[in-house]
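Hey, can you fold this one?
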Amino acid sequence: MKVAVILPAAGLGTRMGRTSAEKAGTSRKQLMQLDGAPILLHTARKFAASPDVQQIIVALRGEDMERVGDVLAREIRNKKVKVVEGGNSRQESVEHALAAVDPDTDLVAVHDAVRPFIDLATIGKVIAEAAEFGAAIVAIVPVDTVKQVTGAQAGGPKVTTTIPRERLVLAQTPQVFRLSLLQQAFQAARKDGFVGTDESSLVERLDQVEVRVVLGSDRNIKITKPGDMDLARLFMEQEAAGRRTS
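Sure. Predicted structure:
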């Protein structure tokens, strides 16, 4: 079984804020330094360490391709790595990367470039689930009560109902699909002008397979806001300590 991983990394990272990113010497969160290396590189290293993965494709902004491509080629030598130019949205970036996947690939995993704390066990589990059922995502169960509200009003949103938590999960990544299924999902989305918030939402529209859920971890954070970097540094210290004692 051949597995390719797509890391969309062409976003501008507006939620991180220009000041926080510029202090880190970059305008993009995925290139911010964490323990001496870009967040993107930490993420790519996790998949490079997975025995299930053969190819890593990174979608970048055009101006970042040469510099980041050189870093990836230097640091990751045990996997086939490609860089492609991303688009103006995550969906466009993943679609561009999808065109660069080796045609004999069985499964494609899409993972947020700014989720560097995914663990190898979860990567293996979600790939195995997708291999059996065709589609699988990593998700966690919410601990907070979830309310459905009306749109914003003069006095603020109004609660309309409480949604039972046992019927909810919070989607993370990786999200893994059969290559042919994901290609079909993107083709249908382009034809219909549909824009999804993740790859699973595109596949769900096809109504061909049940998207299975593999429980993830609260540690699999998506670094999007300045405060997330403090938590990321703590997790990085814990990972380093674990390597020293193992």
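The CA atoms of residues 4 and 55 lie 5 Å apart. Let me know if you want another pass with a different chain boundary.
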